[in-house]
Amino acid sequence: MKVLVIGGGAREHALCRSLSLDPDVTALHCAPGNAGIAEVAELHQVDALDGAAVSALATGLGADLVVVGPEAPLVAGVADAVREAGIPVFGPSGQAARLEGSKAFAKDVMAGAGVPTARSYVCTTPEEVDAALAAFGAPYVVKDDGLAAGKGVVVTADVEAARAHAGACLGTGDAAREPGRVVIEEYLDGPEVSLFAVTDGETVRPLQPAQDFKRALDGDEGPNTGGMGAYSPLPWADPKLVDEVVQSVLQPTVDEMRRRGTPFSGLLYAGLAITGRGVRVIEFNARFGDPETQVVLARLRTPLAGLLLAAATGTLADLEPLRWSEDAAVTVVVASHNYPGTPRTGDPVTGLDEVAAQDAPHAYVLHAGTRQESDAVVSAGGRVLSVTATGADLAEARERAYRAVARIGLDGSQHRTDIAAKAAAEAAEG
Questions:
Q1: Which element (helix H / strand E) includes 185?
Q2: pTM of the complete model
Q3: What pLDDT sits at residue 174?
Q4: Residue 105 resides in a domain
Q5: In this protein, which residues make up the domain named ATP-grasp (predicted)?
Q6: Residue 99 placed within a domain
Q7: Residue 356 near residue 332 (C-beta atoms within 8 A)
Q8: Contact call for residues 144 and 182 (beta carbons, < 8 A)
């Protein structure tokens, strides 16, 4: 099977790594990729948002499967162009990807499907924003309606900060842009869980749950980011959680999308809050999440290519039950100086060979924002690396991950030191 992966972050590196280990994959390509992905796949330069260019590349390569990683190409309809060329593609249509592309649309789908979620208001004027903020009170949850690379949400007790973010989303603040919509929600208490499901538009196959860490600093302090680390499994979670979410959230959403004439095929990601009133959906994404993908795929034992192809060809119901490792997995993101504000790029990355020589196979580095310059790997984004490790339990996986992180050199870099620490300590206490 020849596979083409679209994207160039750590999520795509994790996908390419798993696909490269799949014996059914005879050729692996990635566009545009990054310095790490180049070690396991042949790279191609193409505009990931250009459906015609991606389709032409897939056709030229004779690809048997195209996997679209990031959200922006999905919302832009890249998967549609590939399907029109007659090539199986893992990823929803542009219309179905609106589940992530518009939070207001997702709320409407959840209402139609009877999916439990936070109460919310969709606002288009500052007056509507003020009324919604007053209705819910602090802490305030303000969400950009459109795509924002994981950083469009502000949760704050400061009403002025909430108004400022809403104004930027609406195009009325100092950071004004094209007028838009903003979603104001009630705050959901309780731990958050990420649950992915592979679906062909009818059948839903859940993956193992994970938890990520959105805040930049230890103790969940600092600004929201695209994610600073993750772990799986969740020892504290109810064993029935996955089945409950499939029945109350994932399957009803897939059924509702099909009922509307926009079937959702690909990866449906439910961001969940486990509240005192039960499970509530925080948001949907239309693709694998980053950095949760890194730990979920580290534990998946079912060959990945066959799973994704079954979803792309409507044969998921015929697939055998998914197999999982009993090991735990932890990933720690190494980010550039001043991430998530205006991250510095172009700094050399060192220590990669040392991790490969001394920590493999239990720990390895997935590249997020890197590029090759002559013989050096340099930073090319805010999140630069995802250092991922497995172990018999979370404590061992953490120890291996942070030992590998210590070998990495990147001037001014930052990372959280508490990824999975609380869960590992609680698990050790029994």
A1: strand 182-185
A2: 0.92
A3: 46
A4: no
A5: 107-313
A6: no
A7: no
A8: yes
